[in-house]
Each structure stands twice: as C-alpha cells, then as structure tokens.
Design goal:
With 294 residues, this protein is an alpha+beta fold. 32% of the residues lie in helices and 19% in strands. The chain has a three-stranded antiparallel beta sheet with strand order 3-6-7. A three-stranded antiparallel beta sheet has the order 4-5-8, covered by helices on one side. A three-stranded antiparallel beta sheet has the order 11-14-15. Strand 1 (26-29), helix 2 (36-45) and strand 2 form a beta-alpha-beta unit. The termini are far apart. Residues 72-274 form the Peptidase M24 domain.
Amino acid sequence: MQVLPQPGGDPAVAAADLAESQGADSLAVEEHHLTVARHRALASVAPRIRLADLGSAVEQLRVVKDEEEISCLRIGAEIADQALGELLESILVGRTERHLALELERRLVDHGADGPAFPTSVATGPNSGRRGHRPTDRRVEEGDFLSVCLGAAYRGYRCEIGRTFVIGTSPADWQIQLYDLVFAAQRAGREALAPGAAYRDVDRAARQVLDSAGYAEGLQPLTGHGVGLEIDEDPQLAPAAMGKLDACVPVTVEPGVHLPGRGGVRIDDTLVVRPEADGGPELLTITTKELLAL
C-alpha cells in the first residue's frame, strides 16, 4: 500500500498519476461509477495506462461481513426498533405521513444513529404496502393500514425494518386475511435463509405463498437484498438471481402486497445468515410482527 503524497484533488487522478510514474501498464476502475469527466482526467495524466474494468469485484468482497460489521448492524437495528416502538406509543390519528416520517428520523438520531439509512417511508390507507412510498400530506384515519419502513445508519452500516399496523380500531376481516398471508410469506422467506441456499430459492419460498393465494400479479420484483455500507447491496433475493448464500451475510426479507385503492401490507426484517448449528438465521430487527391495532 502507498499513501498518496498530498491531500486534496481527485484521489483517482492522483493514483493514476502515481501509477504512470511507476511504469504501470494498467489501472483497475469501476466503470459503473466512472464518469466521463473523471475518465478524461485519468487519460490526461496517464495516457499510456490501460483502464481495466473491475466489475463488481469490490461489492462481492463486501457480501460476507465480519463480526465487527455485524455488531454495527445489530446496534443500528436496535436503534430502529427503539424509534419505531416509541412512535407506536404516541397518538397517530390525524397526523400526516410526512410528519410521522420526520419524527421517526429525529428519534433515530436521538438514539445514536448517524442518521436514517434511507428516506423513511410512512404510508397510510390506500398508500400502505407500497414499496418505497414517499410520505405525503395524507392524514392517518381510523381503520387505516399504516405501513412503516425505516432504518438506522450506525458507523456507516445500514439496516432496515418494516411493519404494518391497523389504526384505532379492530382490523377488518380482509385486513386480517391479507396480513396473515404476508406474514406467512415473510416467515417462509426467513426460514429459507441458510448457508448454501440459492438466492432464487429464498425468493421462491416467500413468493409462492403469495402466488398460491392469487397475488402473482403486481408483486414486487424481489423478496430481499443484502445490506451493509449501502442499504441495497448484493445479494439480490429475486427470481432470476444467480448464486448461493454464505454464512455471515446480512439480508432483508420483505415481501408485501398492495391492493390498489385499498392499501396493503409489508413486513420487513434484517437478518444474518447463520448455519443451523449456530441457531439458524439471526434476527436483528425484533419489533413484534403481531397485527396491532394502535
């Protein structure tokens, strides 16, 4: 390893200049992150050097986490659980999605997070159950489904949790049935997590529960994904995904169903893949998955 001689400027350009001065004939780059402007700058300081695409090699090296990294994710999950638990103890009827999302993000920081791991999603009534819903000024009403997805960033590591609740009254029959279905799908996905399990098989375990109940149309494109320094990393738990899980890989399992005009359910956990001898998948996000009427 060699430390670049001076701070400031573009470190990639400085590295290329150093490689040129030492007679290197190639330099590895990540083409999916390399801008046109930076490519021109590299070519100007190192015209003889061939740029070789590194592909996703760095991302692949990050898939398996060590125990120190998992500890950061565990603490982030505890912070997210705390923030969500406090929100559930407050009065929700009449408050807007946007206000609740801002309050959750404040609570994350109050409990020690660097900040939110991603923009917090709060969705009520007909918006509930949508993946990546951006909060609006819609107010929470009695009888609504309320779906929340949030995450904490802690020492650079990001995790997420998603839960769905009913507001102010006992849930309707259709809400109970839909919730029980998504819960069963999420449990099937969690139970499929094991070293050596194919990514697509984990997705299939959750997806077929929803398919068999008639919800094949409109399902989200993946059941889960890796987390770490980014909130969406490899592996992707999706129908066409290639590869198999290793131990010590943190992933989400987050199936959901959204019924246009009515709302829906999402249940989202962050877990770490562990062998059966170590107790199976480690659940990091522990807020109850019981259908609560708040």
